[in-house]
């Protein structure tokens, strides 16, 4: 497991342990990883190639976090190549929906961002495919966990401030992404597949605020900002200008429809039940919005 302490990776670890699998996690600091009992945590860092052999020794299957794409130039063989040399026979790639988009020369801030994301994630996928080993690509859409960006303000003020209240995407619960990754790691049913995983339906920002309020039994007000006001706020929060620009364009793109990423039925086809709703995600994360310890 790489990325084992992240929002999705930790749930992949839980799913593998629950399925009776032996798991080794490559983490920066095994002392603070707080992974389930029985998981072997070893020190490893994508920026330190000399740490990879110990993590990869004896591994047959690898969950590949996107940072594997950015191998230091001085590393010689990249992480994926070293994994093959160590005997890995299957890769499940933590990718992104953008990897499935067509190449674009759109020069808008959003267009440039999506093309950069497409190239990075598709680059890792192609790197894995070129090994000739078994592979599956798991491509989550926009994650519901991004709503945690509102948590501090909701804890302090019980409100959300953002532009385009009616904008929204089919936000996906990180547990759904993990379910698909686990299935790809432990069964042979998904070899050679690339799966785009979304939530069940578009959920607007004002609906997200309402669902979070319901989860914490407190009204969460939505204060609509103009795009200019939102950009100024994000810049004061430390966001780079380019990021603020594409975020505004991303929201504007999904006011009247699903925007660049409509819902898919992939999760239900693979797992056999509907994907988790945003309401369920909000309930699962109520403590984050109340300030309770994990």
From TrEMBL:
Residues 3-185 form the NAD(P)-binding domain. Gene3D superfamilies: NAD(P)-binding Rossmann-like Domain, UDP-galactose 4-epimerase, domain 1. InterPro entries: Ergot_Alk_Oxidoreductase, NAD(P)-bd_dom, NAD(P)-bd_dom_sf. This is NAD(P)H-binding protein. It comes from Nonomuraea cypriaca. The lineage of its organism: Bacteria, Bacillati, Actinomycetota, Actinomycetes, Streptosporangiales.
């Amino acid at each position: 497991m790489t990325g084992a302490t992240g929002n999705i990776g930790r749930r992949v670890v839980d799913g593998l342990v629950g399925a009776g699998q032996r798991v080794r996690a490559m983490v920066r600091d095994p002392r603070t990883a707080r992974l389930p009992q029985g998981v072997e945590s070893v020190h490893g860092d994508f920026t330190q190639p000399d740490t990879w052999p110990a993590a990869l020794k004896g591994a047959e299957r690898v969950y590949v976090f996107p940072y594997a794409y950015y191998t230091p130039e001085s590393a010689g063989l990249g992480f994926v190549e070293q994994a093959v040399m160590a005997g890995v026979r299957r890769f499940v790639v933590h990718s992104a929906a953008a990897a499935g988009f067509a190449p674009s020369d759109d020069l808008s801030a959003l267009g440039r961002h999506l093309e950069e994301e497409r190239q990075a994630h598709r680059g890792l996928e192609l790197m894995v495919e070129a090994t000739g080993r078994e592979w599956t690509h798991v491509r989550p859409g926009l994650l519901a966990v991004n709503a945690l960006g509102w948590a501090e303000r909701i804890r302090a003020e019980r409100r959300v401030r953002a532009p385009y209240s009616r904008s929204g995407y089919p936000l996906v619960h990180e547990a759904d992404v993990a379910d698909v990754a686990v299935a790809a790691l432990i069964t042979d049913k998904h070899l050679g597949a690339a799966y785009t995983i979304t939530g069940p339906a578009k959920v607007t920002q004002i609906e997200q605020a309402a669902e979070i309020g319901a989860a914490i039994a407190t009204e969460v007000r939505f204060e609509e900002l103009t795009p200019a006001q939102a950009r100024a706020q994000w810049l004061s929060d430390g966001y780079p200008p380019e990021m603020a620009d594409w975020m505004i364009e991303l929201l504007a793109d999904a006011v009247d429809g699903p925007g660049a990423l409509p819902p898919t039925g992939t999760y239900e086809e693979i797992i056999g039940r509907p994907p988790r709703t945003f309401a369920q995600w909000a309930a699962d994360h109520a403590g984050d919005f109340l300030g309770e310890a994990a």
